[in-house]
Amino acid sequence: MEADEKIEKISSQTLISNSPSKRIRIRPLTKASLVLRGTLVVLVLLTAYTFYTIDVKDVNFVQGMIGTAKNVKVMFLEPHLSHFSFSHALYQVMITLGLAFLTTVFGAIIAVFLSLFAAQNLSSKRVSVVIKGFAAFIRAVPTVLWVLIFAVAAGLGSVAAVIGMTFHSISYLIKAYSESFEELDKGVIEALQASGASWWQIVFQAVIPSSISYMISWTFMRFEINFAVAVAMGAAAGAGGIGFDMFMASSFYYDIREIGAVTYFILVIAILLEVLATQIKKRLKVNI
Amino acid sequence: MIWVKSMQADIFKKKKLNTAVFILLVCFVTFIAATITEFSIAKGIASVPKAIQWSFSNFYPTKESLTKLPDILDKMKETLLISIAATTVAALLAMIFAIFGSTATRVNAFFGGICRGIATVFRNIDTAAWAMILLFSFGQSPLTGYFALFFGSFGFLTRAFVETIDEVSSSSVEALKATGASYFTIIFQSVIPSCIPQIISWVLFMVETNIRSATLVGLLAGSGIGFAFDLYYKSLNYHTASLVVIVIVVSILFIELISNYVRRVIL
Q1: For a FRET experiment, which of A126, B42, B129, B202 has its CA 20 to 30 Å from that of A89?
Q2: Which 246-275 residues of chain A touch chain B by CB within 8 A?
Q3: Which positions ≥6 away from A237 have C-beta within 8 Å?
Q4: B220 to A236: CB separation less than 8 angstroms, yes or no
Q5: For residue B138, which residues of chain A lie inside 8 Å, CB to CB?
Q6: A93-106 per-position pLDDT tens digit
Q7: Domain total of chain B
């Protein structure tokens, strides 16, 4: 409203003074545009500062770039497996997919229950805030740290990896599920309450059935993310799978061709999962 | 009446059957996944109380570890700056690719397809994978982390920006085309101004994500806060390692606070 008035005022002034050189200000300075510009300026300044202060440790930037370009070319044009066979790689990909699947299933089961208490229309405000705060804390600790912390207790391997990775899945899915629960029409819950339905009946007969297609799409999207996470954890936290082979090729064998081959495996699976996710969303007519 | 009743019963039966099949399938795949990954559910459940017990008895900062705090903060600053710089520069490049890739603003379908294809490849190679690829040329330097984050962000942001442009400006582009506005006028006067709040929101999201991935990339590439954690963790200095975790958590929550505020105001 204010902005409109301002424009009107300025344009009427322009009419009165009748000077065509005076420009009409179409975008007045509001709080939103100030914050927007401020954010842009801060981002650019911080970037400039970073480039100014970055300690490159005698790495030649231009040479590095040329080297990377060459490496990427070799990687993609001459992929070759030298330390393990094609079927071994395929099996490792299955392990990575398995890790991602287990993480997603456990995350989804726990998240369904927690998100029922996180949705404000199904629980009290205090409980909702506590659970959402818990989820925010989980998200603030990077996945790799969760895995490494659990590795101390459970030893390096699939157990620590799955449990550690499950934390972020829980937090992500709590947010997704509870938001879709909160979209449920208030009248539906009230009508069921009035007819004497218990809380669990409301949840299983109204809340979950009405948001099931969203839940499936979000869960599958998390599966897609978990695949990438599982590759990374294989490399950084010894979780096994194709990520570990990539780590070995990179840090021990220095074999860029093998990295290329592994990258192709990862790319094919990742793109397949993406296509599948789009198909599922289309089938369920979900728009997220 | 009877016919209606039996049909209703059929629908419910079918629904129940579908649910049962779905649950069985998930159980079956879970079983297979647990077998090939050698994951034992019992061990997994047992590890949770064990980990909690361990963290309470070992994983807290002591007075001695606090002497390392300035060093850790310095590493955190480096990581934060690199994450922000990588995101900003990637956003700039992604914007160009998104403008040429979006159906609303592309020059032609062929070129648009190429732009989106390049972004798809970059997006589907994880930042951790990029870190391992870049280690060859840049070695253990902050540049490895910078470029790993840069490539990952570039792919993701291009996709996000393409969707934003498609959503926000396809009708205004058409309207401006009808008035005879030039291509650059349309981009700079309509497309960018109308998309900028969404774009900033995506950039802030990417900065948050990148700070999280930076820990992982640092572990692999030997720089920044990830390297600091790895150093203390591998030398079994868990008190200092916990201090690193606390610094990371506080920084991420702080950045999230700022970006949530900005998002609330501009959107």
Answers
A1: B42
A2: 246-247, 249-251, 254, 256, 259, 263, 266-267, 270-271, 274
A3: A144, A147, A148, A151, A156, A160, A161, A164
A4: yes
A5: 59, 64, 67-68
A6: 999 999 999 999 99
A7: 2
- How far separated are the first and last CA of chain A, in Å rounded? 32
- Scan for tokens 């090729």, then name that residue: A249
With DSSP H G I counted as helix, E B as strand and the rest as coil, what are the percentages for chain B, rounded to 5?
Answer: 90, 0, 10
What would the pLDDT profile of B155-187 be if each residue is shown by its tens digit?
999 999 998 998 887 788 888 888 988 888 888
| A160 and A25 within one domain | no
A6 in a domain, yes or no? Answer: yes
Tell me the pLDDT band of B105, cut-offs 50, 70 and 90: confident
pLDDT at A12 over 80: no
- Is the model's pLDDT at A146 over the cut of 80? yes
Q: What percent of chain B has pLDDT over 70?
A: 97
- Contact assignment for A136 to B124 by CB distance below 8 Å: no
Among residues B193, B192, B160, the alpha carbon closest in space to that of B94 is found at B160
The identity of residue B257, as a single letter, is L
Closest partner CB to A142 (pick from B55, B147, B248) = B248
Residue-range definition of the domain harbouring residue B179: 63-266
Domain membership of residue A19 as a residue range: 2-54
The span from the CA of B81 to the CA of B94, in Å, is 20
**Cβ–Cβ contact B235 with A under 8 A:** no
Where a domain ends, among B10, B27, B58? B58
Question: What is the predicted pLDDT for the residue at A248?
Answer: 87
Q: Which of B89, B142, B238 sits opposite A55 (nearest CB)?
A: B142
For residues B219 and B106, state if they share a domain: yes
CB atoms within 10 A of CB B22: 11
Q: Which of residues 32-61 of B touch A (CB under 8 A)?
A: 32-34, 36-40, 43-44, 47-48, 50-51, 53-55, 59
* Residues B6-61 pLDDT 10s: 666 678 888 888 888 989 999 999 999 888 888 888 888 888 888 888 888 888 88
Out of B216, B233, B262, name the one closest to residue A232 (CB): B216
Please compute the mean of the pLDDT values over residues B179-205 and round it to a whole number.
89
Residues on chain A touching B33 (C-beta within 8 angstroms): 97-99, 101-102
